[in-house]
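Q: What would this complex look like in 3D?
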Amino acid sequence: MNRYIKLVNFEVNRFFKLYIGLLIIVAISQFVSLFLVKSKYMQAANDANYASSMKATERFISSSGLLTFNQVANHLLFIGPIVICIALMMFYVFIIWYRDYFGKNTFIYRLFMLPTSRMTIYFSKATTILIMVLSLLAFQLILLPIEINVFQQIVPSELLGKMSTIDLFMNSNIFTMILPSNFMDFIFRYLIGMGLVFTLFTFILLERSYRWKGIIFGILYVIAIAGLLLIPAFIESYLFGEDFSFYPSEVFYMELGLFTIIITVSILFSKYLLKNKVSV
Amino acid sequence: MIQVKNVSKKYGRKNVLRDISFTANKGEITCLIGINGVGKSTTMKAIMGITPIDCGEILIDDKKMNHTMYENITFIPDTLTMLPSFTVGEAMQFMKDFYVNWNPERAKELLGFFRLKEDEKLGELSKGNAAKANLLFGLGLDVDYVLMDEPFSGIDMFSREQIAKVFTSHLIEDRGVIITTHEISDIEHLIDKVVLLDNGEILKEFYTEEIRLEEGKSVMDVMREVYQS
Amino acid sequence: MKRYRNLAVIAVVTTISLGTFFTKVAMSESKLPKFYLKTENGDSKYAKDLMISAGYDQSGGSGGRSLTITTDGSEYKDRNSMLSELDSDYYDLKKLDHLRKKERNFMRGKLSSSQFYIDKDYAWYADVKGGKLGGTYEHQNNHFKMYIDGLDLHNKDRFKFKLDIPEEENYSYIYVQDVQLIGKDLIVTTYQNKTDVVKDKTTNSNINVDKNELVMYRINVNQKKIVDRTVINESSNDQNTHTHTDIQNLIQDSDETVPSKFDVYKKVKLKDTVQTNGETETEELSNEVIILNLETGKEENLNLSNEQKEQLMQSNVILDKENLYFITQSDKDLSVLKYNLNNKKVEGETVLIKKVDSNNLSNYKVIDGKLYAITNSTENPGKFNKDLIVADLANGQSVFEGKIEVKKSKGDPSKALKKLQIYDFKVK
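A: Here is my prediction, written as structure tokens for the whole assembly.
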């Protein structure tokens, strides 16, 4: 357990510089989007001479609506950095293994010669991915009230549609995908994400064990998993015929069961590969 | 004792190791000799369990390799096993963190012996210093067995002298050492046992002392004999 | 230890941040007002099994929240949750929700309440399926088949079979309107569409002409055969006058699963005019209520005077058991005329429902001869009423008056009521 934490710490420290860079990009880009949205709206408002009279203000509001933070949250420069972070983390799932092999780095020797089970290495890398993703979310959660506050300062109060952080999550924007406000949904979504990470790790280890053949095996493995997950649909369409359909809850529990099997198999398979087939 | 029994390994279609068997004892310096690509590094990595073998068995003190043994056997390859961004000091701290058998005093001694500085970045070291740093990380562990892969290759003369000195010092003492090289002139006088490899096979395994006494030959003589036949 | 600084900071900040977030979400959920249905007048038995669907508009641009209100209290729907959607009460009729819980296998995949027939002994379901994978249809040759599934509610015998539909290859879609058991036969009425390609006389190009048909299938359950197929009515198209008639199922049925020997629909005459901007505007020229007697298999007209028919053209027609109720909403009031389908005549006089605020009527249903109406009204600035009235259609008197109230509100309840809109309800 001790060595596991030390490895996680090690991996986190390696990633830290890049991580801080990401945070800065997110912060800057989102603040810029804030001002851009406000400017665009104020441009329209000033063009309509909203401030000339009460009636003009009302008219403008009834046609264009109040300016809410949700419009900022849908702006390209707000969503963009989030998407970049997601893409980067997905990329890092691969890099977190390959960086120990390539370049001036043959750190993989040291990793494999550590007096700890290789699964510790495996889980420490997976944990690192999880921690980095969750901390990026956390950072966004810290940034939001600040952004909302600044936003509410710079928009004239008569044109402002007030919104708290929680209100933002009830709206439809990128957060419905990455941070569902229902706790169970959140846990569920990120468990599936971790499942994906474990599957990708198995793919990587297949490549590291068998090189080119490994990539083919890996692709077959992924196809097999996809096939497994489609079993309920298959049963419904072909096995039972046209007049049968599953209840959504039944599909859910079946998929959950299949998913658990897939994760377990991925981890056990990775264990086998790490112990017996992977070379430096 | 390290026992390699009937080990074979293929890389793709190439038979890198063909049914090789030999032993290396604690307290002895065993040298694997052969030209490049003959399977020396592969053998070392196989013993360390970081490259899988296709068949055969490798026992260390009569036990199969598992991760707990890394407190007892270390491998010093000819590449850096630490992050280039680490300083020497950080790397030593890393070893301390993960290995129970890390000996900080001995490490400090080696530091002084090799004249390395703690705050130097590993990636910026010269080849000679990097090799010495590598040695430091390996020898700083209280292990019974040390495996070294080409410790002298591409190293400047002064560093080679320093490294050669290590073999006679208390730092090696009663450990079992397996060393690979294709250049034995620096340490011929230190080697206890020689294993000659060619094309993935073992051509001859002998004790230098015995050969010298019984046949009056040096290691070089035997090599000439064996490789030119 | 300072080596662990980064990890420690990240771990702590992440936990606190996410923890705070979910705590805040939970707290803001608990701050939502709790409503309940209070009996103001009348017999509370009418409210007992009632479930009102409503929307609460949280301010701050967070949009509306769906909730259900009963006499016991209210329950908000978890908006962003996928998990809580699983196996929730799906049907608009409680009896179907109950049947699903009891007969899980039988109810599998049966989603449309109008395709059920349920009496005290049997439950039947009819469906027409065909077309290609992905739910697309061609103009013809969709290989439609009728799927019949019946359950004996007492001994749990199951009757499941598949039928070939005569002439199905000519239709682009067939869907089931109603299922009834008349005697020993299952009567399935369907709405079917044929798409013919004809030459337009004016433009001389090929155009698709839709023809809709109302078809009645009589199925012998024992023989598992369709023994009769009749086209009851069909739409028509008059290219010269640019009018077409169509069959529309605009008759509200309070409960489509109950046994009834009548099928009621409207036949409307529509005129299409092409505007200058190229769009087509359709106006309704006339409409007529037509009754299909499933026992005889023949259509019947309403036994009303022309004057009455004229008056009732703008009314909403509701079918409840064997009665048609014509409900007319005017500026001031709500009036109801009852027509007995068995006796083929109007019963009683037009009844005025006084208690229902006709201006702010949100929704109403007729169940067992009683009118259930939901209103959202503002009495004067500051007073918001969300009422549910149940009135006896025989005499127009209310038998139940209920009001949505706020449970233990700290502040002014009218603030919460202002943001509430009730729009539908479900009874047993």
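A: To summarize the key features: The two ends of chain B are 31 Å apart (CA to CA). The mean pLDDT of chain B is 89.
Q: Very helpful, thank you.
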